[in-house]
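re the bet — no i am not wrong, look at it urself. input seq straight from the record:
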Amino acid sequence: MQTQGRFRDYFSFESMRDRNGELVCYHVTMIGTIEKDGVARIRTDMGVNNDQTMAFGRITIRGCDRKIQVLLKETNSRIYYHTYSPEEGASDIISFVAKEWRAQEVYNFNEGDRVLIEGRAYIRHSENPDYKDELSITVTGQFLLGRRKRTVNNLVPQQEF
């Protein structure tokens, strides 16, 4: 299933090559939802001098598993989480990291927000030899597409007499 509500998730990538045709990096563009476990955490003690700000989060993308799998096969890597159910289809959770002013922007994303994130794919090496290395995205562009409206239920249940 490629929709969540009335929204459609999106995932694409392209390889960036130098003049000699050598692969430099992969540029990824994705549209998805920030779920509860994907809300960004921010750290201000990163970098060589412990003065760099970075935010770490995850985006959930539904219905784009075939495109994601192509990139994973090319890089011999995995993403944070993948699941499939016949009722809801495929769901993929991809980690991302943002630096400096972008970190503050993605830190402001809330649970339920629809976002566009683009950036360079990089591979985080796994310490465990039983796991493949994890593909993650270094954010070069981010955009809030929509915010889920919170509904407040002020109804008080009635008691039976």
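see?? The chain has a mean pLDDT of 87. told u. also The two ends are 46 Å apart (CA to CA). so pay up
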